[in-house]
Design goal:
single chain, alpha/beta, D-Maltodextrin-Binding Protein, domain 2, 7 strands, 44% helix, 17% strand, globular
Protein backbone atom coordinates (compact mmCIF):
# COMPACT_ATOMS: atom_id res chain seq x y z
CA UNK A 1 0.00 0.00 0.00
CA UNK A 2 2.75 2.45 0.95
CA UNK A 3 4.61 1.61 -2.24
CA UNK A 4 1.50 2.37 -4.33
CA UNK A 5 1.04 5.73 -2.61
CA UNK A 6 4.70 6.58 -3.16
CA UNK A 7 4.48 5.66 -6.85
CA UNK A 8 1.34 7.80 -7.19
CA UNK A 9 3.03 10.78 -5.51
CA UNK A 10 6.08 10.47 -7.78
CA UNK A 11 3.83 10.23 -10.84
CA UNK A 12 1.85 13.33 -9.87
CA UNK A 13 5.02 15.29 -9.12
CA UNK A 14 6.70 14.39 -12.42
CA UNK A 15 3.52 15.09 -14.39
CA UNK A 16 3.25 18.54 -12.82
CA UNK A 17 6.94 19.20 -13.35
CA UNK A 18 6.66 18.39 -17.05
CA UNK A 19 3.87 20.97 -17.42
CA UNK A 20 5.74 23.66 -15.48
CA UNK A 21 8.11 25.53 -17.73
CA UNK A 22 6.15 24.86 -20.91
CA UNK A 23 5.07 27.97 -22.75
CA UNK A 24 2.37 28.71 -25.26
CA UNK A 25 2.21 31.67 -27.57
CA UNK A 26 -0.54 34.26 -27.49
CA UNK A 27 -1.16 36.97 -30.05
CA UNK A 28 -3.54 39.80 -30.70
CA UNK A 29 -6.64 38.73 -32.63
CA UNK A 30 -5.39 40.82 -35.59
CA UNK A 31 -2.40 38.53 -36.17
CA UNK A 32 -3.09 36.52 -39.36
CA UNK A 33 -1.00 33.48 -38.43
CA UNK A 34 -2.37 30.51 -36.49
CA UNK A 35 0.74 28.33 -36.82
CA UNK A 36 4.40 29.35 -36.87
CA UNK A 37 7.63 27.36 -36.90
CA UNK A 38 10.30 27.20 -34.19
CA UNK A 39 12.50 29.21 -36.53
CA UNK A 40 9.77 31.86 -36.79
CA UNK A 41 9.65 32.09 -32.99
CA UNK A 42 13.41 32.59 -32.83
CA UNK A 43 13.38 35.19 -35.61
CA UNK A 44 10.49 37.09 -34.01
CA UNK A 45 12.05 37.30 -30.55
CA UNK A 46 15.48 38.15 -31.98
CA UNK A 47 13.97 40.98 -34.02
CA UNK A 48 14.88 39.41 -37.36
CA UNK A 49 11.31 38.88 -38.52
CA UNK A 50 9.51 42.20 -38.09
CA UNK A 51 6.25 41.78 -40.05
CA UNK A 52 3.39 39.31 -40.11
CA UNK A 53 2.30 37.85 -43.46
CA UNK A 54 -0.16 40.74 -43.93
CA UNK A 55 2.68 43.29 -43.42
CA UNK A 56 1.45 44.29 -39.94
CA UNK A 57 4.37 45.16 -37.65
CA UNK A 58 5.23 42.44 -35.13
CA UNK A 59 5.24 43.79 -31.58
CA UNK A 60 6.69 41.14 -29.31
CA UNK A 61 6.98 41.52 -25.57
CA UNK A 62 8.71 39.42 -22.96
CA UNK A 63 7.30 37.63 -19.96
CA UNK A 64 9.08 38.59 -16.73
CA UNK A 65 8.34 35.20 -15.19
CA UNK A 66 11.75 33.54 -14.94
CA UNK A 67 10.47 29.99 -15.53
CA UNK A 68 8.56 30.97 -18.68
CA UNK A 69 11.40 33.13 -19.98
CA UNK A 70 13.96 30.36 -19.42
CA UNK A 71 11.69 27.86 -21.19
CA UNK A 72 11.43 30.19 -24.21
CA UNK A 73 15.20 30.66 -24.30
CA UNK A 74 15.99 26.97 -24.02
CA UNK A 75 13.40 25.54 -26.40
CA UNK A 76 13.09 28.23 -29.08
CA UNK A 77 15.83 30.88 -28.94
CA UNK A 78 18.77 28.58 -28.11
CA UNK A 79 20.42 31.25 -25.98
CA UNK A 80 20.83 31.58 -22.25
CA UNK A 81 18.90 34.46 -20.67
CA UNK A 82 22.17 36.38 -20.24
CA UNK A 83 23.14 35.81 -23.90
CA UNK A 84 19.70 37.03 -24.96
CA UNK A 85 20.04 40.13 -22.78
CA UNK A 86 23.50 40.82 -24.23
CA UNK A 87 22.16 40.31 -27.76
CA UNK A 88 19.51 43.00 -27.23
CA UNK A 89 21.94 45.39 -25.52
CA UNK A 90 24.20 45.02 -28.54
CA UNK A 91 21.25 45.67 -30.88
CA UNK A 92 20.47 48.84 -28.90
CA UNK A 93 24.04 50.14 -28.87
CA UNK A 94 24.52 49.51 -32.59
CA UNK A 95 21.22 51.21 -33.44
CA UNK A 96 19.68 48.03 -34.86
CA UNK A 97 16.87 47.68 -32.34
CA UNK A 98 15.40 48.56 -28.98
CA UNK A 99 15.41 46.36 -25.91
CA UNK A 100 12.06 44.51 -25.82
CA UNK A 101 9.48 45.49 -23.23
CA UNK A 102 9.15 43.04 -20.34
CA UNK A 103 6.02 42.56 -18.25
CA UNK A 104 6.44 41.37 -14.67
CA UNK A 105 2.68 40.85 -14.39
CA UNK A 106 1.19 38.17 -16.63
CA UNK A 107 -2.18 39.95 -16.41
CA UNK A 108 -0.61 43.15 -17.76
CA UNK A 109 1.14 41.15 -20.49
CA UNK A 110 -2.15 39.56 -21.56
CA UNK A 111 -3.90 42.97 -21.55
CA UNK A 112 -1.13 44.40 -23.74
CA UNK A 113 -1.45 41.55 -26.23
CA UNK A 114 -5.25 41.87 -26.24
CA UNK A 115 -5.11 45.59 -27.01
CA UNK A 116 -2.08 45.89 -29.31
CA UNK A 117 -2.32 45.15 -33.02
CA UNK A 118 0.38 42.72 -34.13
CA UNK A 119 1.39 41.78 -30.57
CA UNK A 120 2.76 38.38 -29.61
CA UNK A 121 4.15 36.96 -26.38
CA UNK A 122 4.33 33.75 -24.39
CA UNK A 123 2.81 32.56 -21.15
CA UNK A 124 3.09 29.51 -18.96
CA UNK A 125 0.99 26.72 -20.44
CA UNK A 126 -1.13 26.60 -17.28
CA UNK A 127 -2.17 30.27 -17.45
CA UNK A 128 -5.64 31.02 -18.82
CA UNK A 129 -5.84 33.84 -21.35
CA UNK A 130 -9.08 35.08 -22.93
CA UNK A 131 -9.60 37.28 -25.98
CA UNK A 132 -6.23 36.43 -27.51
CA UNK A 133 -5.27 34.15 -30.37
CA UNK A 134 -3.38 30.99 -29.46
CA UNK A 135 -0.51 30.43 -31.87
CA UNK A 136 0.67 26.86 -32.44
CA UNK A 137 4.31 26.05 -33.10
CA UNK A 138 5.07 23.29 -35.57
Amino acid sequence: MQKSVLVLIVFIFTSTASIAGEVRFIANQSVPEFVISKEDVSEIFLGIRVQWSDKTKIKFVLNGDETSHNALMKKYIKKSPSQFKYYWRNMLYTGKGAVPKTFDSVDDLIKYVQSTEGAISYIDSTVKADNVKMISVK
